[in-house]
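> Could you send the 3-hydroxyacyl-[acyl-carrier-protein] dehydratase prediction when you get a chance?

Sure thing. Input:
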Amino acid sequence: MLYNVIEIQKILPHRYPFLLVDRITDLKQGEYIEGFKNVSISEPVFQGHFPDHPIYPGVMIIEGMAQAGGVLAFKSMDDTSQEEIENKVVYFMSIDKAKFRAPVTPGDQLVYKINVIKNKGAVWQLDAKAYVDDKIVAQAELKAMIVDK
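Output:
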């Protein structure tokens, strides 16, 4: 384990119920990150999606992958202090080639695997995939920018 949820909260501004990464398990600065989210029936989204047939929304999977990508971007900024990180946020620029291949349900562990396609300054282009039990459930190309709050 590289970062638990407490350490992730020092990197990302997101908080419950919208912090969608529980742990970071692998990271190589400027190249890739791997982390996961445990999907629980107690999550507020399942009150309405869907009460009799709980399915974790695809947009939440995309957001979780983006948050993992945000951790990667922040941790790839070599000379940036914690104070500087706290004054920055990651904004989505685009989501391309999004595909959802299998439903995610309570009890699943979503494993996020994010690889850098390109990084130019504050802009990051990422190849993002989400897995459950080594089976791909979602994928997308994400583009984001680190900006001042």
